[in-house]
UniProtKB/TrEMBL annotation:
Keywords (A to Z) from UniProt: Hydrolase, Signal
InterPro entries (UniProt xref): GDSL_Rv0518-like (IPR053140), SGNH_hydro (IPR013830), SGNH_hydro_sf (IPR036514)
Transmembrane domains' residue ranges: none
Residues covered by the SGNH hydrolase-type esterase domain: 231-399
This protein's name: SGNH/GDSL hydrolase family protein
Signal peptide bounds: 1-24
Gene Ontology molecular function: hydrolase activity
Region (Disordered): 49-70
Hydrolase found in the keyword field: yes
The keyword Oxidoreductase belongs to this UniProt entry's keyword annotation: no
Length: 419
């Protein structure tokens, strides 16, 4: 599998200079940044006492729960571990699907490997070709139209009145300069970038198409408390198919849309247990009101660690998650070749890991291997479910999503209530 490290991409559009640091957009499972960023300094953390999903009315009868106040919970999220530099004021307009209903929203932004100036932010309903389908609503930060973030910092906006239905798509426009946190692959088609200050422009933004998620990490929606899942994984979870992708085709988004319950995405291309454990707080546990976590990790570790180490890492990760969420663990998908190491060792380790998961994670298992492997060979995909022997195709993501839906529905997961 091709791996290009330390790539610098320079795009010039008039006064706009954009530099992307990190892996190329079309890389596969072995993608890693040349040097891992430091752990985020985050503005907001999850309350230590967790989320009370069904509180009891102390003054009423035991079977009469008190009304539950609206709660901010994520309807969209990406880990954004890489960094994108913008020189000169630049406007991004990202088309963002949001899988949570409610009456108000908050936006969380992250800086990259340097400071970031957010000059102006607006939010509206997304229209065609970068246009807005509603009036742009200003977004503020402690009452100001913008803010400055230090290196690897997360900031959350003030609440914005903005009614949302499940699966609505937003146009989030922001004028920025500096270093933005970024994904390694294209996931948000229908997004644009243009040099200058254009966040309030209602018509098509113009400029150039720009599908790489940058800056905007999370959309939180205030609505009735519900189950909210975060998916932890590598490129398979992030949604890599060919590098020019759509988050709406990822297994987590497809399952979320079927269930009517938020499943937000904290997958990172190339990730293994080491980075997942090291950066867990800033990329997943920083989210407000999560109740469940789905872990699909280990594929990138198969050729480099003994089986007992892989199992110990999975155990440690699930123990770290315990105070915050119920944890579901997915079996590792077929792997038809090894990008590094000996393939025979990779095959043996994958089988050992899946056997350990099935033995030790009952009943909270999502058996992705069982629904994707060929009938006559556990190491091969069913025809049409993969693109390269490692990553699932769009059809493969649909099969994975169907299995997530089946398991979660069997365990009582129900759609969120309408606001």
């Amino acid at each position: 599998m091709r791996t290009r490290r330390g790539m610098v991409l320079v795009v010039c559009m008039g006064a706009l200079l954009v530099t992307q640091c990190g892996p190329a957009a079309d890389e596969g499972e072995s993608v890693f940044p040349p040097s891992a960023p430091a752990m985020d300094s985050c503005v907001e953390t999850l309350p230590s006492d967790g989320l009370e999903v069904a509180p009891v009315n102390p003054g009423g009868t035991p079977d009469s729960p008190r009304p539950q106040p609206p709660l901010f919970q994520p309807g969209f999220h990406l880990a954004l571990r890489w960094s994108q530099e913008v020189r000169g004021t630049t406007t991004f307009r990202l088309r963002v699907p949001v899988n949570r209903a409610g009456q108000r929203l908050r936006l969380a932004f992250r800086s990259g490997d340097g400071s970031l100036v957010l000059r102006r932010v607006t939010v509206a309903r997304a229209g065609p070709e970068g246009a807005l389908a509603s009036e742009p609503v200003p977004v503020t930060f402690s009452g100001a139209p913008g803010t400055t973030l230090a290196t690897r910092t997360r900031v959350v906006s003030d609440p914005v009145p903005f009614p949302l239905h499940f699966c609505d798509e937003l146009a989030v426009s922001f004028e920025v300069e500096g270093q933005l946190a970024a994904s390694a692959i294209e996931l948000l088609p229908g997004s644009y970038v243009r040099s200058g200050a254009w966040a309030t422009t209602p018509g098509p933004l113009g400029g150039e198409p720009w599908a790489i998620p940058v800056g905007l990490a999370t959309v939180e929606v205030e609505g009735p408390p519900s189950r909210v899942f975060v998916a932890l994984g590598d490129s398979i979870t992030e949604g890599y198919i060919n590098g020019h992708d759509d988050i709406r085709n990822s297994w987590s988004f497809l399952a979320s849309a079927q269930l009517g319950v938020p499943i937000v995405n904290a997958g990172v291309s190339g990730q293994g247990f080491y980075d997942a454990l090291r950066l867990l707080d800033g990329e997943a546990l920083v989210l407000s009101g999560i109740t469940d976590c789905i872990v699909l990790l280990g594929t990138n570790d198969l050729s480099g660690s003994p089986d007992i180490k892989l199992q110990a890492d999975m155990f440690l990760l699930t123990e770290r998650l315990k105070p915050f969420c119920r944890t579901w663990v997915g079996t590792l998908l077929p792997k038809e070749h090894a990008s590094n190491g000996r393939y025979e060792e990779v095959k043996s380790s994958r089988l050992a890991m899946n056997a350990w998961i099935r033995t030790n994670r009952q009943p909270d298992i999502i058996d992705f291997e069982a629904v994707t492997h060929a009938p006559d060979n556990v190491h091969l995909f069913i025809d049409g479910l993969d693109v390269d022997g490692i990553h699932p195709s769009a059809a493969g993501h649909r099969v994975m999503a169907d299995e997530v839906v089946r398991v979660l529905r069997a365990n009582g997961v129900q759609p969120q209530e309408a606001p």
